């Protein structure tokens, strides 16, 4: 066997090295590397909340000491903090979806990525999984870490001002709050799936101003319907798509006494909601169209 033939035959170690990278996994890593806001935006909001809690620790401690009258102070504070992180993650997912397929055509990097042995399906699915799975996981992890730090901050504050820790812990069902937050994140993410899919589709076909192209057709449809037919079916459908997930996830709470808590969650009703499955079907169609369109798309 000649030296040339020896070089042409890869060793077992070389073959393992070549086959080691998993395209889908590394495509997700690429998205996280290129869009740092996926990780930094929720974490920044959580850090700001911790800073505010430290700066106002005397105020919160005074409220606990005097027996705050009204909704449970600890639960209210933790849920408001979680809501800010969830809203930030949702907005990050919206703007990410609008830019995911447009930016690679705008900076012409699509030519480089198409030259790699990574299919359009893998590329689009890796982008679709970011708002549907990665960002929700990041939001929950950040919220959990933030809540643990808030507990530590408030506990230290109570010790500094010589207040019993029971005044905080007696008000704080910590694990129930985490379960509630996780339930809200999962239900809202699944409900918003067609929105993310629509934004990805707009990102795949628009050449600039993706936000305008995403919003204007919907606004035009609402205006045209009201002007031509004097009805509001499109507007009501859009409102249902934006807010209907909460009503489905907490169906009886919103209809009976208006207070939402983990005990009011109705996952069976939510899973039986036609709006959920129609939205997921629409998301699948949008992603399929994105894959087909990307096969023929070049740089802008």
Characterise the protein shown here.
The protein has 300 residues and is mainly alpha-helical. The protein has one domain. The chain has helices at 3-8, 12-19, 23-34, 37-55, 57-65, 73-100, 102-106, 109-115, 120-160, 166-169, 174-191, 193-205, 210-229, 233-249, 251-256, 267-271, 274-294. Helix 9 (120-160) packs across helix 12. The radius of gyration is 24 Å and the shape is globular. The protein starts with a helix and ends in a 6-residue tail after the last helix.
Number of helices: 17
Low-confidence residue ranges: 1-20, 253-258
C-alpha-based Rg, rounded: 24 Å
Mean pLDDT: 81
Write the layout of secondary structure elements.
Elements: H1 3-8, H2 12-19, H3 23-34, H4 37-55, H5 57-65, H6 73-100, H7 102-106, H8 109-115, H9 120-160, H10 166-169, H11 174-191, H12 193-205, H13 210-229, H14 233-249, H15 251-256, H16 267-271, H17 274-294
Structure keywords:
mainly alpha; disordered N terminus; 0% strand; 300 residues
Brief description of this entry?
The chain is an all-alpha fold. The protein has 17 helices and no strands. It starts with a helix and ends in a 6-residue tail after the last helix.
